[in-house]
Amino acid sequence: MKIGIAADHAGFDHKRNLIRQLAEAGYDVHDYGALDYDPTDDYPDIVVPLAQAIASKAIDRGIAVCGSGVGVSIAANKIPGVRAALITDTYSAHQGVEHDDMNLLCIGGRVIGPMLIWELVRTFLRANYEGSERFERRLQKVIALEKRLDK
Length: 151
Hints:
Elements: E1 2-7, H1 12-24, E2 28-31, H2 43-55, E3 61-66, H3 70-76, E4 84-86, H4 90-100, E5 104-108, H5 114-126, H6 133-149
Parallel strand pairs: 1-2, 1-3, 3-5, 4-5
Helix pairs in contact: 2-3, 4-5
C-alpha cells in the first residue's frame, strides 16, 4: 500500500516518527512535506500536494498532521476525491474507512501523543471499505454532491 504523509511545523516531528514506523511496518511511504522544519509554514501549502496525490490515485491513503488536525482536514476536503477526517479514537479510525471510504487521516500533533497517533494510523491502514449497498449509496451521494459543487 502506498501511503502519503504531510505535516506542517506543528506535526513535523510526529511525521518523521511515522515515516520510520511505517517503513519498518513495510509500507511504501511518500513524504509530501514539509521537508524541513519551518515554524512559519502554512498547513494548506503542506496538505494540498498530499490531497492531490490521493485524488489522482498516486497513493492509496494519506496521513496529515498539524497542530489540532482541524486545519489540514478543512483544506484537504476542498480537493475533489478526498475524504479527510480529524480522528482521535480507534473506532472512528476504522469506521471512517469501513463505512465512508475515508482516504486521509488527519491528526492533531499538539493534541494527542505518539503512542495514540501510531495506534490510530495502524487502525486506519488496516481497515477496508465495506462497500455494502447502504455505504455505497451514501458514498455516491457524497461524490455527486462534490461533482455538483465543483462546477
